[in-house]
Design brief:
By secondary structure, the protein is an alpha/beta fold. It has ten helices and ten strands. The mean pLDDT is about 95.
Length: about 240
Amino acid sequence: MPSPLLKVEDLVIHYGAIQALRGISFEVAEGEIITLIGSNGAGKTTTLHAISHIIRKTSGRVLFAGQDITAFPPDRIVGEGLVQVPEGRRVFANLTVKENLDMGAYMRGDRGGIRKDMEMVFVLFPRLKERLRQLAGTLSGGEQQMLAMGRALMAKPRLLLLDEPSMGLAPILVDEIFAIIRRINLTGTTILLVEQNAYKALSLATKGYILETGKIVKGGSASDLRKDDAVKAAYLGGTK
């Protein structure tokens, strides 16, 4: 059986005296969409930040493509092919759409590959091509989310970490973003998705893990979790 693309082992995180993650472990296989579900403060974003080494780990290990990346700095982690789209988009507001996309490829030297990937981004997000010279800060929320995802794709990720991609978007845009996430996955990019919209996330994902107060309390196939009475009551409105 092949090794998982991402393996998180007994990850513990503290913010001062507060223990935010309490020894979580999970795996992501190549080609999968895995989702982390939980209420606000459960530790979902903290998990992504720990994987990307944006925050310091108290203990535990992160392995990516068989390599221990626990102590790698964030830029090296991006260079290895593990790229995060942050919560709240975090586009460079005073740069154009084109300049934001170029920033995504800042560690790459393959000009031909960069041009090819830029065209791929425009196929996924045609609106970005229409707004190429527009300042990112003047885009709508949905367009900024598309730009944040496009910028991450310019880094040529093997694994894309998506943090709340539907936050603040109108329902029709949420559907569009989730359809694009599926298309990105079908091109060969593995995805770890953190998402408040549990029903949408479990409809898209292969597997899911439920986080509560820094611990994984349940995991399994997405279809099984959608049918689980406790999951339905807590995260799916009890009716889906």
